[in-house]
Amino acid sequence: MTTESVLPPLDPFAGIPDRRYEVRASELLKPGNAGLMRWRRQATNAPIVYVEDAYITGTLDLRAADLKYLFRFERCRFEQPPDVREASLLGLVFRKCWLPGLKARNMRSRNDVRLIRSVVQVDGDRREIEETTVQRGDDRERGMPNAAVNLTDAVIEGSLVLTRTVIAHPHGKAIHADRLVLAGALLAYRMVANGEVRLPGLRTGGNVNFSGATLNNPDGFALNGNGLHIGGSLLCEVDNYGPPSQRKRFSATGIMYLPSATVDSDISLREAKLTVSQHGPIAVDAWKSNDPYIDPRPALVADRMRVDGNVELSDGLQALGTLRMVNARVGGSLRLAGAEIRVERGKTVPYYDRALHLDGTEIGGDIEATSLRVPTGQLRLADVTVGGNFLAWNSMFRHPGRDVFSARRSKIAGNFQLTDATIHGTLRLQGVDVGGSINLAGTRLTDPGRRATSSYSLDVRTGRVGRDLTLRDNNGRPFVAEGGVNLDGAQVARRVDLRGSQLGSLPPFGVALDAGDVASDEFILTPSSPPTGRIVLRRAHCGTLSDNEQFWAASDGIELEDFRYDALKKGIPLDDDKALDARIELLRSAMRGYRPGPYDQLAHMLRAAGNEEHASTVALRKQQFRYEALARGFKFFGPGVRLWSWLQRSMVGYGYRPVRALGWLLTLLVLGSLWFGLGSDDCIYDQSGRFMRNGPRCVVNQQDTGLQWNPVIYTADLLVPIVDFGNKSRWYMHGPDNWVAAGFTASGWILATTVAAGVSRMLRREN
Where are the transmembrane segments (predicted)? Predict the structure, then answer.
């Protein structure tokens, strides 16, 4: 009902209206036909007070009133803020109204409270609305908030609807609703709030929906929901009502502050835009601290939050400021797919430039971060527990020169998949525990962080992987680690795969791959190009080793002390001596010096495979390289060491070729037999007459007339030391024969000594 039926509808947003629309609030509240009864709809007995197209002057004062009416104002303009504090009403509706404020502390409504397509605008020059505790030395009531809409401690047995309403306060809060209790939902589609929306302790039975809303409080909290409890979902996403061109995304300029919040269903900020100034003073004085784990300019703060469903920070979400959820609990999944998060890059320590901060958070489902973009800032996930997978293929994380992704000691029940990603900075997974696989196929890691003790692009030290660690190429895109990979002490159940990878290193450390103490069923060490730097495999162990020449050609060599492998994936055939020689040369060139362990390991592996001949060849070559190293160390005695090495190698193969000794023995025996058998002696009789001819040779003692000359037995007696066959001291030799006999005796001693040395060494090694 209007004041005059002939008047056109009132536009309450066009300023002070014509006085013909004026209705005094005092007249409205008069009892009887001149007051409330006049505005009731008389067609039915419904207790509705319906006022439309009116300019209500004075104060609509319903404070502490107990009225069984639903008040509905449509196209009305209020001169003073309506006052319904401590009132008990059936409901309260403002539709297309203009209000200078709304005082509704401790109000109780048995139905909805609605401000639809309305404007609540506090005049900056008028301060009557202000109820503040901030100022001192005045007559204002302490404990009273300064807000355009004040719903503190109100109880609404229906829903609070703020759809398409504009609420603005130039020097206070837009909404103050501490401990507001709603039996239904809070619906604020496309609401615009200039000032803080304060909802700590809010309790709702249904959703809180800010889809399409705009919250603007750049110097503080855009939304303060400390400790709120939502019986449904918190929705801050796109409002798709109307044609596609009119869809509107949620945006917040200021901090989304939700610590200790409890949400019984989901939180959705899909396509939301969150902005916090990255310059100027810190927004909250309490955060002015030297604590390095504080995030002073966060776009979202949700520490200790409890969510039974999913948290959606995805599908085009844009955040300028940290997304912080420390020690939170998410029953479902955390989705960051398609989001973009950026922060201002810190210039001094501590840097305070974390883009995503999830320390200590427990997530029951997955973390889905596919196509996530972080142009600047760190993603920190220390001590996070994930019940599902971490999925982040096609992502881009950029924080050059620092740790761009840090997930120390995190536990992931499923897979950690970061394939085809572009990462500028260090990916730090130190101490991570992954039940499935870590898959970084096709990922490029450049611009790693530099520290005083180490510098790596990927750090998985002491990590535990239930299946595979995959650092390989993917569809023609190689895995690249510009600063190298650190796997020191990692435990991988199945496979460490570096097929087609490209490994580099940075000075002064120069380590392209540190796989010391790594244990796995299989190593696939087949990079596409020689690693630039040093490879460390100390005390590593695998069941099967697959490698290539590029791996062994690492620019600064390979450390192989106590590196153990049980078999080669591509074995060495029994008849392929060239393959064995090639592998020995790979070992020798990679180590840049003599190390016995790698040769022993190769020999042990070949012997276990039944390839005893090749195992002996490896052991022989090891001894050869050992003497070469000794000769280089003993400068003066070097030639003697080389000669002794040559004698052992040529005669008995350092004990691994005993047949060579028999060959030498037979050769010398033939040569000696020919020399002494083809020659003859002219006996030279002295005065004693002790020489006499006995066949072609002269005996020393004339009494040895029964001794027959046999050049073969004589030569054997010369060659075999210690044992005497009764020939070498009984025949007289002179001239060249004497020298030849002495040479055969010396050769016998040398041969016997080298055989004894080689055999004893082999026996000690086998024992």
Answer: 659-678, 739-759
Cβ proximity of 197 and 215 under 8 Å: yes
Q: What's the one-letter identity of residue 597?
A: G
Q: What's the pLDDT score for residue 686?
A: 47
| Spatial CA neighbour of 443 closest among 498, 487, 480 | 480
pLDDT tens-place string over residues 178-229:
999 999 999 999 999 999 999 999 999 999 999 999 999 998 899 999 999 9
User: Cα–Cα distance between 282 and 185 in angstroms, integer?
Assistant: 34
Q: Are 298 and 321 in contact (CB under 8 A)?
A: yes
Return the DSSP state at 61: B
Other C-beta atoms closer than 10 Å to the C-beta of 657 total 18
What distance in Å separates the CA atoms of residue 766 and residue 86, rounded to the nearest whole number? 96
- Tell me the three state secondary structure of residue 579: helix
Using CA atoms, how far residue 183 sits from 109, 110, 187, 228, in Å, is 10, 10, 13, 14
Shortest CA distance to 100 belongs to which of 147, 36, 52? 147
90: three-class secondary structure by DSSP: coil
Pair 462, 489: CB distance under 8 Å: yes
Between CA 193 and CA 215 the distance in angstroms is 5
* Kind of pairing between the strands at 203-204 and 491-492: unpaired
| 56-68 as b/e: b if 16+ CB within 10 A | bbbbbbbbeeebe
Taking the alpha carbons of 259, 263, 266, 267 in that order, is the dihedral positive or negative?
Answer: negative
The model's pLDDT over 47-91, given as tens digits with 9 standing for 90+, comes to 888 899 999 999 999 999 998 889 999 999 999 999 999 999 999
DSSP H/E element including 638 = helix 638-652
How far apart are alpha carbons 309 and 267 in whole angstroms? 8
Q: What are phi and psi of 442, to 5 degrees?
A: 75, 5
Token look-up 């995805």 returns: 314
DSSP conformation class of 126: -
Interval 287-333: pLDDT, tens: 777 788 889 899 999 999 999 999 999 999 999 999 999 999 999 99
pLDDT (0 to 100) of residue 133: 38
- Residues 718, 744 contacting (CB under 8 angstroms): yes
Among residues 427, 436, 326, the alpha carbon closest in space to that of 374 is found at 427
CB 21 within 8 A of CB 55: yes
Tell me which residue of 549, 554, 552, 508 sits closest to 531, measured CA to CA: 554
**Rounded Cα distance, 642 and 636, in Å:** 12
What are the counts of helices (DSSP H) followed by strands (DSSP E) for the chain? 10, 69
Quote the pTM value.
Answer: 0.84
Contact (CB, 8 A) for 540 and 566: no
The two tokens of residue 195 are 């000032």
Round to whole Å and give the CA distance between 369 and 423: 14
Q: How confident is the model at residue 707 (pLDDT cuts 50, 70, 90)?
A: low
DSSP H helices, 476-593, are 549-552, 577-591
Q: DSSP letter string over 215-265?
A: EEEEEEEEEE-TT-EESS-EE-S-B--SSGGG-B--EEEEEEE-TT-EESS
pLDDT of residue 699: 63
Handedness of CA 78, 81, 87, 88 (dihedral sign): positive
- Burial label, 115 (beta-carbon count in 10 A; 0-12, 13-18, 19+): buried
- Alpha-carbon distance 10 to 679, whole Å? 145
Question: How far apart are the C-alpha atoms of 670 and 711, rounded to whole Å?
Answer: 10
- Phi, psi dihedrals of residue 657, rounded to the nearest 5°: -130, 65
Across all residues in the chain, what is the average pLDDT?
A: 86
